[in-house]
């Protein structure tokens, strides 16, 4: 089975065929760095991190571009309130985003361009749109895209101009059509000089949509494979990106992928609800790996229902997954990272490959991982070292696709701590098993059974063999 992706533009499951054989170009709308990152931001980052990991595991050379929007109306307003230069304000939060991505194990993008570093290219794109009859100048400093000039406008979200409400459009007196959008915005009184650039049409700064089209084109070319982002960006942002890029004569994105949002207590996460959760606050209370597990193992097109219960459930899953890996590494040694990275699709379980190729069905993929953890635990119970090592390789390779290999960064230190916990538990369990063995030797069967039952009540399964009693944490 080859990779199939749900293309948001056609609303169909399409076989993925890259523009250039063996290579994939992805553009992901990154952060507007006006404030601290919340888990909604991380939902998108994690969803596309899994995509990148799967494509690389599948043998593709992936170029991932994730932009930073470091200038817009909100950044200017909030930086003024804070008494900072806008670029200093943006940089503070850009660093917070980087720290959050790193903490959750999100791979660094190939390129992470800032909008303010690409103004000359933006001016060139505006020039091209004006020359092709798709943009016009308004008051000095304002340039707008003429949506009526592009017959296919609205095709991404399957809307026509007649269906759009004027109430949803930004009202500017120099627009020809209320749905025309700004390519370049005139400087406003009181805005800092550092946020103003001179252009042939007047001084000002770029429009949001223009920034992404420009950066995608510079780093991935006029046509590239996949454009991703949150479902809330489909309109107007992605619609307008596509419109201006197509109007310029570029193919732009061949596939569109959109992740669903996060809900908290059944409500869509938003600042107006007062339930926007800041990543740094969550990580001060919960291990980062549990946050990744909770947000990153739900299908990217499904809503994540986030709560304390979600994290509790994630903790139980992580204990089982990491527990096997740590015990396997202790018994047969840690399989080198190079060997884990070299495991290709032909060596992975077919059911896992099929699940991931089915539009990144991470839930089904995780079920396959659990099956192999069970097989690995069974091998541990009978000390089958060949099977233990084989299952360690498979489980870790599959977990790596999800960014959850316990012996890879950034979870390795947590794994070491888990190993210490395991060693302590092992000593406690064996002290009880020794006492049980003594009771059996004295034919005190009631005492022996009571000790075994006490372990069972704690979730410890005891298996008797010719070599003595062994224990494992049972499946619950």
Structural class: alpha/beta
Q: What's the arrangement of strands in the largest beta sheet? A: 4-3-9-10
Task: Tell me the radius of gyration.
Answer: 27 Å
What's the average pLDDT? 92
Overall outline: elongated
Strand proportion, as a percent range, falls in 5-15%
What this model shows, in words?
Helices cover 46% and strands 15% of the residues. It has helices at residues 39-57, 73-82, 86-103, 119-131, 208-220, 234-247, 279-283, 288-296, 308-332, 337-341, 350-357, 362-381, 385-401, 412-441, 445-457; strands at residues 4-7, 12-15, 23-28, 61-66, 135-137, 143-145, 181-186, 204-206, 223-230, 252-259, 262-264, 267-268, 304-306, 460-465, 468-473. The strands form five sheets. It has a four-stranded parallel beta sheet. Strands 5-6-7-8 form a four-stranded antiparallel beta sheet. A hairpin with a 4-residue loop joins strand 1 (4-7) and strand 2. The longest helix has 30 residues, at 412-441. The chain starts with a strand and ends with a strand. The relative contact order is 0.11. The mean pLDDT is 92.
């Amino acid at each position: 089975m080859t990779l199939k992706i749900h293309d948001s533009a056609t609303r169909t499951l399409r076989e993925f065929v890259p523009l250039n054989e063996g290579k994939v170009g992805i553009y992901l709308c990154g952060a507007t760095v006006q404030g601290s990152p919340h888990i909604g931001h991380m939902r998108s980052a994690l969803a596309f991190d899994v995509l990148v990991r799967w494509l690389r595991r599948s043998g593709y050379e992936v170029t991932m571009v994730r932009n930073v929007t470091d200038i817009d109306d909100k950044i200017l307003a909030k930086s003024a309130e804070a008494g900072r230069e806008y670029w200093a304000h943006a940089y503070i939060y850009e660093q917070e985003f980087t720290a959050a991505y790193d903490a959750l194990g999100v791979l660094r993008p190939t390129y992470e361009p800032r909008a303010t570093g690409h103004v000359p290219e933006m001016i060139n794109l505006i020039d091209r749109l004006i020359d092709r009859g798709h943009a016009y100048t308004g008051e000095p400093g304002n340039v707008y895209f003429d949506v009526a000039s592009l017959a296919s406008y609205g095709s991404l979200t399957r809307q026509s101009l007649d269906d759009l409400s004027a109430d949803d459009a930004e009202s500017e007196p120099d627009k020809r059509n209320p749905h025309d959008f700004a390519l370049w915005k005139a400087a406003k009184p009181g805005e800092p000089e550092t946020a103003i650039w001179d252009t042939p049409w007047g001084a000002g700064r770029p429009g949001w949509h223009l920034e992404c089209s420009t950066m995608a084109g510079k780093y991935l070319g006029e046509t590239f494979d996949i454009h991703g982002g949150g479902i809330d960006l489909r309109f107007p942002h992605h619609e307008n990106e596509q419109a201006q890029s197509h109007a310029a004569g570029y193919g732009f994105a061949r596939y569109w992928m959109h992740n669903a949002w996060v809900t908290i207590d059944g409500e869509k996460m938003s600042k107006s609800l007062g339930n926007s959760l800041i990543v740094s606050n969550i990580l001060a209370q919960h291990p980062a790996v549990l946050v990744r597990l909770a947000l990153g193992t739900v299908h990217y097109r499904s809503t994540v229902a986030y709560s304390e219960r979600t994290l509790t459930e994630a903790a139980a899953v992580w204990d089982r997954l990491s527990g096997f890996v740590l015990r396997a590494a202790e018994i047969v040694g840690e399989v080198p990272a190079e060997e884990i990275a070299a495991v290709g699709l032909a060596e992975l379980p077919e059911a896992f490959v099929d699940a991931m190729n089915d539009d990144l069905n991470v839930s089904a993929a995780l079920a396959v991982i659990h099956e192999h953890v069970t097989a690995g635990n069974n091998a541990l119970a009978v000390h089958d070292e060949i099977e233990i090592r084989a299952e360690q390789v498979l489980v870790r390779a599959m977990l790596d696709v999800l960014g959850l290999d316990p012996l890879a960064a950034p979870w390795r230190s947590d794994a070491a701590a888990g190993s210490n916990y395991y060693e302590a538990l092992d000593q406690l369990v064996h002290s009880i098993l020794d006492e049980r063995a003594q009771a059996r030797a004295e034919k005190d069967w009631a005492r022996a059974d009571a000790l075994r039952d006490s372990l069972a009540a704690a979730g410890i399964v005891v298996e008797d063999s010719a070599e003595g009693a062994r224990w494992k944490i049972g499946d619950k």
